[in-house]
Please model this.
Amino acid sequence: MRVIKYTGLYVILATGALISVLPFVTAIFVSLKPARGLFSTPMWYPPLNPTLENFRSLFDGTSFALYFLVTIIVVVMVTTGQVVFSMLSAYAFARLRFWGRNTLFWAFIATLMVPNIVTLIPLFLVMKDLGFINSVWGLAGPYIFGTPFGIFLARQFFLGIPHELLEAGRVDGSSEWGIFWRIVVPISRPLVGTLLIITSVQSWNNFLWPLIIGGTPRSTVLTVGIGDLSTAVVPAYGPMMAAAVVVLAPILAIFILFQRQIVSSISLSGIK
Amino acid sequence: MAHSQTRVATDAGGAREQPAGLARVRLRRWAQRATPYVFIGPSFFGVLAFSIIPILMAGFISFTSWNLLSSPHFNGTANYAALLHDNRSLMDFARSGEFVLLTVPLQTALALLLALLMHGKFPGRTFFRAVFVLPWLATPVVVAVIWRFLIDPTTGPFAQFLSFFGIHTGYWLQSTTLALPAIALMTAWQFAGYNSLFFLAGLQSIPEYLHEAATLDGASTWRRFWHITLPLLGPTTLFVVVTNVIGGFQAFDMVYVLTQGGPNMATEVINYRIYELGFQQFDAGYASAVAMVLFLIILVFTVIQLRFANKRVTYDMS
Model:
């Protein structure tokens, strides 16, 4: 009975896992197949003589390498800014007392309710006035100063730091800055990890804002670049899957390295 | 904070210092008061400049007629009045509702099923939990590109596989009846595993003794599920449903890549329509008005969530 139960469980879960993963596996397979003879075997067959031909044509024939660079720059800018600024303000919201603290915090959180599309036109206008259209500053600008979600997550973490730890710093005569950098930051490694993963993945995956604010090759990120590639009338599936694999590679790497943190950070974000 | 204030007090009172020292104490006290504002400064600027001010601006723009080139001119509620007669946009709202109805029940049910299967200890649990999250983590635009290839009716693996069984698929994305369900199916594929993590957390919070007591009373697995598990998962289900409804109303990436709203507006959801109005037709005033209406719809669901989220489902044990 037990055996039947477990076999059934594994069969269903394995089927589900296969459905989750198969599209990605197929994309990787097709990206490694030569253009000639692509249709001689079914698409889901592993490549018999794998080749990097598709990747080469992608990087030689298009601006994909440039898009890659632009994306990296934007992701690094956004991630650094968000992690630092979210943690700073979350610490103040969690552990310092000041006039207007709760009102401000809830005002921050309330902005989470507003759909992205509402602010796009005004944001575009603001960026136009600042001269940031078609630049990495425009791409990164709105996200660099921390997001309410990141602040919320960091605040939850800081609320859990034992009171005595911070008090010890105060007795030693440290300023709040000193306490933050020497006591809080060193014990916040799990938080920093979570924020780094969430922010960099979100920023890497972002599409609508870069679509609006960018346009020139020097302000085109990968998601926009691949979107354009795929709306071509006759899609060349080999190079397109190569492009898909290039965009997904960092995500897959992060996934394989940090799956535990990702899973636990999602569970954490549900407790609101 | 109470302790920092006491420290300031002892500094000032305990030290019998010269006037110069007193000034220093005042300065330190002032600096201490300012510190929290320095901490929140950058993100306050960010939220103000990139969220709060743009929201207010959007509200203002929605009462104007503006092509983004000349200066805007105020036209009262004309945009909102126009929306009442704009069948295309109204249909797009309805289509978004249809999209939500296609995706949310499906992905919630799948998520619950996955969570029930993964609840409990068995080897490989962590592995499965992670694998089901992958579609959510993957770049949505890329996911769309891959699915477009997978379901290509001439060369795609789906069609090739089905043709073994003599089944021939049409081009779902070019069919007015099948395009929206196809995108809904891909969306459900993307989010089911992610949502199952919330149900897993919910399942873990159900006390074991409830199930044990029910088992002792002779309740079957099925009855335990209906009368214990499901009611106690109420708050989790509410959270999952509401966040997915809100997300569903904002679907964009897949539509943009796969169909651009077509064929014949069959996949033109409201978020895509606002994008078109604002950034292709440069009708900023009207686009903002439609966006504000969408905001209102989402607000309703958020309020439902906030209103009921704290009402925990409890069983009277007395």
Q: What stands out?
A: Strands of chain B lie at 64-65, 73-74.
